[in-house]
Amino acid sequence: MPEQKDTLGYGDFEFLKDRPYLLFNNDLFMLDYEYALGKLESAVVWRVLRKLSTKMKDPWLSYWGLIFEEYVTWLFETYAEPSLHTLIPNPTYVASTDQICDQVIICGDTAVLIEAKLATCAAEDRHSCDYEKIKAYLEDKLVQTKGVFQLLNAVRKIGAKGEDVPSYLKGVTKIVPVIITKDDAGGSYGVNAYLNKRFKDQLNPASHQGITVTSLVSLNISCLERMMWVLKDESLADAMEERISNDPTLRQPFDAAYPKARHGTPYRLNAHVDAYKELTDKLIKDFDMKDDSIPDAPVDQSS
Fold first, then answer.
1. How confident is the model over 81-120, as pLDDT tens digits?
2. In the predicted model, what is the mean pLDDT of the chain?
3. CATH architecture for the domain at 54-271
4. Integer angstrom CA distances of residue 240 from 112, 201, 262, 268, 281
């Protein structure tokens, strides 16, 4: 398998991401579960993006950003125990109808405010070992306009307890701000600590008197998938606070500080298996695909 482009530095696995399967003796082996699933989605996004005109690139990425938000909502609708979680997707304020964040999940008297961000970091920046490039990415994609800024604005408005605040948020005594990224960056070393510092530096304690606001938690979608099984028995709020208490500095990746986010293939995602089977069957039907004819092995007549 020849290299198609130069390796950008230590930890650059773009080559394997582009070729997550190995064919050996007519058997196909999956080298990495997440890379293989990423091939089903991300490969489509980027191959189409490369063919679009400049003016169409941002609308295309915005479209996939909405799909990502819907996927995060579907995860909670499908796997989180309803008695422990009240999910409000695309929540808005009462009068202004501005969006509060991407999802609100009420767990008892705690509100988890979620920002789901496509937030892709270019490979040349990711592997550049240039902290200025990484800082610029974090500020542009996860701090300014949306992300940290959106969560700060939500905390201030909820803390004010004005008429614009929905009734389901008026009784909360604790807020857990969370950023979920499609990109691996959300679950990388040091990123959560940086985002939380930017959040805390701009958070005025006077703006939310009577409401406890925890540290901001960031994780990527892979970590969320690998910890969804937990939400059958405990709340998302408790899981996020356990992650914080296990690593108060927030420097570790989410799955290092929260061992219940199991490594490897996500655990007990049965609805995913059913969905993939349904999509596979539809693909076979739509394209009239048939298995290649494989002759039976010859029978040894001497025995």
1. 999 999 999 999 998 889 999 999 999 999 999 999 998 8
2. 90
3. 3-Layer(aba) Sandwich (3.40)
4. 9, 20, 15, 20, 37
Pull the structure tokens for residue 144: 């300014």
Q: How far apart are CA 16 and CA 32, in angstroms?
A: 8
C-alpha angle 189-195-199 in degrees, rounded to nearest 5: 155
d(CA 79, CA 93) in angstroms, rounded, equals 27
Q: What is the pLDDT of residues 22-47, one digit of tens each?
A: 889 989 888 887 788 777 777 788 88
| Burial tier of 54 (Cβ tally within 10 Å: 0-12, 13-18, 19+) | exposed
> Encoding tokens for residue 275?
């969905």
Pinpoint the alpha helices (H) of the chain.
14-18, 33-51, 54-79, 123-126, 131-138, 148-160, 167-170, 191-201, 221-227, 236-246, 254-257, 270-286
Q: How is the chain split into domains, by residue range? A: 1-51, 54-271
